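Anyone up for a design puzzle?
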């Protein structure tokens, strides 16, 4: 880091434990790099010394080209004096005027080139040294001012993330969701919006409902047959004539070292030792025949079938949220809080998630591919109004379920169900879609549901906003209080 030193980073890390989380730490580092890059660009653009620095570069270039004329030296002095206009630096005018005047003195018959070179070198060195000092003071001042602004902003962000983390833990919402929040450029209003709906979710009854929603569909195990290849090794022993490990018989040879004792005994008698020599020359000594065994392993391939247990991948979520005027107030808050929970649960379970808002028309939000938290927050900040027509939302959801990405989906409708009945063609299409392992659920805000029931759901809940009670609806035994 160029402008933020390690001691300042250590201080933040000690103060905000949230920085120990990898995603928050990564986002902090990325934000710091962006700020430093932006600050560097700002310093370059606002540099009041830029023109003076360019003039100095030109003068030094002339000097290196051995240009030491009095007019050039006078111009250097004028440019050097401009430094006074953009800083608090003061130049000793009398000294430099005197030195330049001496070079112009007509009484001198000849002005040596070396004198002009020395004077211009002195002037350029003085100019460069003071210009660098003044620029450094200005740059340091700018860095300190911008650093304080950045640290104030980053501490506000870290403080908000830390508070959100504590709230998310109470709801068992995964750290992935906090990481998604960290990636967005959230305003204070955004964070307050999230906190508002987390507080709503943290009430006992809604917490129980969200626990049930989190277990809508458990991953099923299935047995998968897998063919595997096995390799075993058989060992065989092959005679090896080059090995002399064991006696395998006798043979006629001239190998003295393997001659049998009876043959060697011939050497003990001078009269018959000549017989030994003769046998040796004719390779007719009776000798032990020695050989060994060489171990040889060879592979044998075989195939077998095993059963392997695998978890079925959980399907996506499709949320259909009633955003009509009748949902304003408490129903709206409940719908938004549950949407926040489902979106975070989808991120935790790495499930695709699609949000469909419906009133008299529909609005769709794709919450997959890393979760677009900003779009979700925009929905949470939206006001509900308009009439109610769920049919377009269901038709859109059914179309999604036909595709590969959203097959085996869990669809959840949150509404007060103050709406007309569905056409038979749509309910028939829903029943057909359910046969492809798609599930349909609903959360009904208040008891209007009992007057206008849609018989399309696998599970149904009723939230009574007046009593703040939750019921599960069962066709056989009626309402079951949770």
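Challenge accepted. My sequence:
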């Amino acid at each position: 880091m160029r402008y933020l030193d390690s001691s300042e980073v250590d201080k933040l890390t000690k103060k905000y434990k949230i920085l120990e989380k990898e995603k928050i730490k990564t986002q902090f580092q990325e934000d710091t790099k962006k700020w430093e890059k932006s600050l560097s660009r700002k310093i370059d653009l606002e540099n009041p010394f830029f023109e003076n620095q360019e003039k100095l570069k030109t003068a030094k270039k002339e000097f290196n080209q051995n240009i030491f004329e009095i007019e050039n030296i006078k111009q250097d002095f004028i440019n050097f004096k401009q430094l006074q206009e953009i800083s608090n630096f003061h130049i000793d005018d009398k000294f430099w005027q005197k030195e330049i005047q001496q070079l112009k003195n007509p009484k001198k018959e000849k002005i040596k080139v070396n004198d002009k070179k020395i004077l211009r070198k002195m002037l350029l060195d003085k100019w460069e040294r003071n210009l660098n000092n003044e620029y450094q003071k200005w740059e340091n001042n700018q860095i300190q001012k911008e650093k304080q602004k950045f640290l104030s902003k980053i501490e506000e962000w870290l403080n908000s993330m830390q508070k959100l983390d504590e709230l998310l833990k109470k709801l068992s919402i995964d750290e992935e969701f906090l990481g998604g929040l960290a990636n967005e450029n959230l305003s204070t209003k955004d964070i307050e919006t999230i906190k508002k709906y987390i507080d709503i979710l943290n009430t006992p009854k809604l917490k129980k409902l969200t626990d049930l929603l989190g277990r809508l569909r458990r991953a099923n195990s299935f047995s998968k047959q897998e063919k595997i290849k096995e390799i075993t090794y058989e060992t065989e022993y092959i005679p090896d004539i080059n090995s002399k490990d064991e006696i395998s018989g006798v043979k006629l040879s001239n190998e003295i070292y393997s001659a049998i004792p009876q043959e060697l005994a011939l050497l003990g008698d001078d009269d018959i030792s000549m017989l030994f020599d003769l046998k040796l020359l004719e390779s007719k000594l009776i000798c032990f025949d020695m050989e060994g065994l060489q171990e040889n392993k060879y592979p044998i391939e075989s195939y077998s079938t095993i059963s392997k247990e695998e978890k079925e991948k959980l399907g996506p979520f499709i949320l259909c949220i009633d955003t009509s005027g009748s949902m304003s107030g408490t129903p709206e808050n409940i719908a938004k809080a549950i949407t926040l929970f489902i979106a975070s649960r989808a991120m935790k379970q790495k499930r695709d998630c699609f949000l469909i808002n419906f009133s008299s028309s529909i609005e769709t939000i794709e919450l997959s591919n890393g979760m677009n938290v900003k779009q979700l927050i925009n929905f949470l900040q939206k006001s509900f109004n308009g009439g109610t027509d769920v049919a377009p939302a269901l038709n859109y959801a059914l179309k999604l379920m036909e595709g590969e990405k959203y097959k085996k989906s869990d669809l959840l409708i949150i509404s007060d169900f103050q709406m007309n009945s569905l056409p038979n063609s749509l309910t028939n299409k829903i029943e057909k879609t359910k046969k492809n392992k798609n599930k349909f659920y609903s959360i009904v805000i208040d008891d209007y549901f009992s007057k206008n029931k849609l018989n399309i759901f696998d599970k149904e809940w009723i939230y009574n906003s007046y009593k703040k009670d939750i019921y599960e609806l069962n066709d056989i035994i009626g309402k079951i209080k949770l």
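A detail worth pointing out: The chain has three domains: 1-170, 207-215+313-481, 223-308.
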